[in-house]
Amino acid sequence: MCELLGFSARRETDIRKYLKEFFNHGINHPHGWGLMRENHGITEIIKEAKCSAKSQQISEIIAETEPQRNTLAHIRLATVGSIKIDNCHPYIQTDNTGRCWTLIHNGTIYSGKQLMKYLHTQTGDTDSERISLALLDEINEKQPKTDKHRFEIVDNFVVSLSKRNKLNLMIYDGELLYVHQNMRDTLYYRSENDGIIFSTKPLDNGDWKPYPMTQLFAFQAGKKVFEGTKHSHIFVPTLEYITSMDAMNI
User: Fold this and answer.
1) Are 233 and 214 in contact (CB under 8 A)?
2) Which residues have CB under 8 Å from 90's CB, separation 6+?
3) Is residue 43 a contact partner of residue 229, using CB atoms and an 8 Å limit?
4) Cβ atoms of residues 155 and 167 within 8 Å
5) N or C: the chain end with fewer CB closer than 10 Å?
6) CB-based contacts of 71, cutoff 8 Å, min separation 6
7) Nearest to residue 180, comparing CAs of 195, 190, 166, 194?
């Protein structure tokens, strides 16, 4: 499976040690990496279709990363889609109001007919990109006017898509960081000064706690601000899924 990292904080915080450890995990997730970071007040996306643990860029990128308030990172193990830059996360889309939506996903969509129409319009060929495109259409259709309405739209979208699918994901809309897990023991979090960091696996020996199951939460400036619908769509790996992961040395 892929791995995710997300960070939200009230003030700029040096998270380079976490980024370094996270991208070192790329040795077991060799099919690409991506980073959303703030750089001199501008949000930028950096991606490469290479193993992050062997990338010549990573050390320099981490070293020059200034203290962050909002960050997303992803390392990819390809389960759907070929190995190319268009299939690396994060995916970023801009809605009709000019708001940018950035998404990273750890999982596979087994049941998602509402995503199939994007097969011929997406840039790459991953189910994760199709999630991003479907969410954008939902936002544009509903035209939210407030943070709460925006959250409710995302919550309804996540609940409807999580049935029979592995849907660990993080979404950043320029203000809110949305985080969801529906497979046990695949997402953790810990407090970091005035912020909170999320990761598929603990990144040090600190006080990491399991992230709540089957409920979307939104965070702003390091604090939880919205709670979504508690649903029952827990993804339980099949024997076939476990065997395929074992074959990839996961």
Assistant:
1) yes
2) 34, 35, 36, 45, 47, 72, 74, 102, 103, 104
3) no
4) no
5) C
6) 5, 6, 7, 15, 19, 35, 36, 37, 38
7) 166
Q: Is 138 helix (H, G, I), strand (E, B) or coil?
A: helix
pLDDT tens figures, 60-93? 999 999 999 999 999 998 777 788 999 999 999 9
Rounded distance between C-alpha atoms, residue 107 and residue 181, angstroms: 10
Q: Tell me, yes or no, if the pTM score tops 0.70.
A: yes
Determine the 3-state secondary structure of 174 from DSSP: coil
**In Å, how far are 3, 87, 125 from 55, measured between CA atoms?**
17, 17, 23
Residue 54, number of CB atoms within 10 A of its CB: 10
Give the pLDDT confidence of 84-136 residue by residue, as tens digits: 999 999 999 999 999 999 999 998 888 778 899 999 999 998 999 999 999 99
Q: Which residue has the tokens 């750089």?
A: 39
* Sequence-distant (≥ 6) Cβ neighbours of residue 14 within 8 angstroms: 67, 68
Number of neighbouring beta carbons within 10 Å of residue 156: 15
Q: Specify the pLDDT at position 201.
A: 97
Mean pLDDT estimate for the chain = 92
Distances (CA, A) of 122 to 1, 40, 95, 152: 22, 30, 16, 25
Closest residue by Cα to residue 130 from 110, 147, 150? 110
